[in-house]
UniProtKB/TrEMBL annotation, chains A, B:
Keywords: DNA-binding, Transcription, Transcription regulation. It comes from the Bacteria. GO terms for molecular function: DNA-binding transcription factor activity; transcription cis-regulatory region binding. It holds the Pfam family Peripla_BP_3. This is LacI family transcriptional regulator. Residues 6-60 form the HTH lacI-type domain. The keyword Transcription regulation applies.
DNA sequence: ACACCATGCGCAAACGTTTGCATAACTGTG
DNA sequence: CACAGTTATGCAAACGTTTGCGCATGGTGT
């Protein structure tokens, strides 16, 4: 309630001019004498006038806000991803004078309904979507309403038609496989999640593609999937993998969190990394550097990606380019200690 | 521009009633016949009416937004702290129907000027402050304008007078010291930062208090400080500490990031942890669990704290309690492998 | 001298709500 | 049946801005 309340009216009155003139003078574009413009700017500065966002939004339809919908996944970020992502976006948006707002999805509700609500109440000029699923209803909804947005990740069907930036998990997994294959590994495993996230499919595709390309019938692949945030079954699945009679020697994982669990379970079972098994992660979270023997993984440069996404969205907001932009980012392989030659036996 | 645009007027017209009546029916408080209320709610639902935030904000002065000012500290979160903090706030605010927005501080500008601007343009109903410094100008500015806010951390002078939640670093450091002292350590070091953050002072005070209380003249304390985000001089300072003739056997650090650097430098110098030196961190970041030999540290429950801060702010917004709330959270000591008995010599 | 145009400014409407006040309709009482 | 009291509804102002339009003013061309 402590409305500071210096309005355009105050500025105008202090100069004996009309509100309209003051508004135009500050806008800077309209036909206004240089003289008055100078005076108005000066007066505004002296009085401490700051334009009211709500009023401006009401008439212009532009809020200066970009929204990000966050699932409330129990406590905090299971995903270290989000921290970098949010600051990257914030940095990118601030370059264009916009702010980022987060809205948490209440436990009961669906992400889609939250997005629908957001679009309708005019809270945001544009939206950012993270964690796109294969048939993400949010993407389809926003495209249909032609509401400006940018997504991290692709849906299956349409690769264009909207602004997206994605990590090229396919080629990354090919690279990882080739590395391990070159090290003599023939018995692989993939630790993945059960949810239908597009990146899961992409990486699996890459892996299968690489395997097919070797045309080597001795190559085998086991898969262990568990719900993304279910630590318990995750650990169980990995144990199953590591204690199987035909234990794999090379383990690819969908993201570092899974790889770290693999390292832990391996340690518990007395398996040495990388002598007995090689493990490769994805994302290069901070812990990857410190968990022994150092996790070989892919750096996705998520901060910069998010910043670029902000730019994509702002461009599509300003209406300059009506064509959607798309960008595929190639992650960088970070070699550490968790991979090595296949054990001989 | 794709303004969905179902307004109150649409709802009213579809029922042949006035806008005012429709508004009141949806507000739910006013004297309205149960009959019309039912009809209006139903019509609104059918049409897909969602109240326009900007218009509502303009007249009511309430935006439904709470702001958080983020320093853009190079790339991403140097601070794992912020990730948890942001989601905690988001969760807490969503319970009350508010959203959190982040505004990054542009490189040139000061945090204070951003805050001033925020307060004036009516973007937010309230503000959240993080990383409070000893004489934080933001706190003083907001108190003086009696703008609703809640801060994580205290300024030096006033401990009441505004809503704050703080981690009790003083008693935590006493606890840490006592633990190490009981293990026979007599030669201590504190690795800290150069910035005048209040929590730095609090923890140092705690440490000095604990030392004084032993009344043991053989206890010594060395201090190594470096700029918070300057990795290089940080490493140098720590090296200096570890290679000194009278190398300390127990090292307390202001936060886990510093502790991890200590562990790294110790490893590089061939020092064993905890046999040669004990190291204790603060914050219990995810990496703490995985960095060998496991970092003994304090868990601050920052997610829950942030969520509670959201509650404090919302209460002060609703004007229920005009008195500021304050809360001191005691961090929980997490025992891992990085501390042990003092080496004999 | 006239018409004409460019320039600089003001008036007032509009954006979609909320809300104080007036008014209409209804209820019960004498 | 009149009156007061209650209840439900409508009218219109207000929030602070932007912007289309019109109106002066003064300069330029013929």
């Amino acid at each position: 309630m402590p409305d500071s309340g210096k309005t355009l009216k105050d500025v105008a009155e202090s100069l004996g001019i009309s509100i309209a003139t003051a508004s135009r003078a500050l806008a800077g574009q309209e036909r206004i004498s240089l003289e008055t413009r100078r005076k108005v700017v000066q007066a505004a500065d002296r009085i401490g006038y700051v334009p009211n966002r709500a009023a401006r939004a009401l008439v212009s339809g532009q809020t200066g806000f970009v929204g990000l919908v966050l699932p409330t996944r129990g406590h905090g970020f299971e995903d270290p991803f989000l921290g970098e992502f949010v600051t990257g976006l914030g940095a990118g948006l601030s370059e264009h004078g916009s702010d980022l707002f987060l809205t948490a999805v209440p436990p009961g509700e669906s992400e889609l309904s939250v997005v629908e609500h957001l679009v309708r109440d005019g809270r945001a000029d544009g939206l950012v979507l993270a964690r796109v699923t294969e048939e993400d209803p949010r993407v389809n909804f926003l495209m249909q309403r032609s509401f400006p947005f940018v997504a991290h990740g692709r849906i299956l069907k349409t690769e264009a038609g909207y602004n997206w930036l994605d990590t090229d998990g396919r080629t990354a997994f090919i690279e990882a496989f080739d590395l391990l294959y070159a090290h003599g590994h023939r018995h692989f495993a993939l630790v993945t999640i059960s949810e239908p996230m597009t990146f899961r499919r992409q990486r699996l595709d890459g892996l299968n593609e690489a395997i097919a390309r070797t045309d080597d019938p001795t190559v085998r692949l086991a898969v262990a999937a568990s719900p993304r945030f279910d630590r318990e079954t995750r650990a169980k699945e990995i144990q199953r993998l590591l204690t199987a009679a035909d234990r794999p020697t090379a383990i690819l994982t969908l993201f570092d969190g899974l790889a770290i669990t693999v390292l832990q379970e391996a340690a518990r079972l007395g398996l040495r990394v990388p002598e007995d098994i090689s493990v490769i992660g994805f994302d290069n979270i901070p812990t990857a550097e410190h968990v022994p023997p150092g996790l070989t993984t892919f750096d996705t440069g998520i901060h910069d990606s998010a910043q670029e996404m902000a730019g994509m969205l702002m461009r599509s907001l300003s209406g300059h380019s009506s064509k959607p932009e798309t960008r595929l980012v190639h992650p960088r392989l970070v070699l550490r200690g968790s991979h090595g030659p296949a054990p001989k036996n």
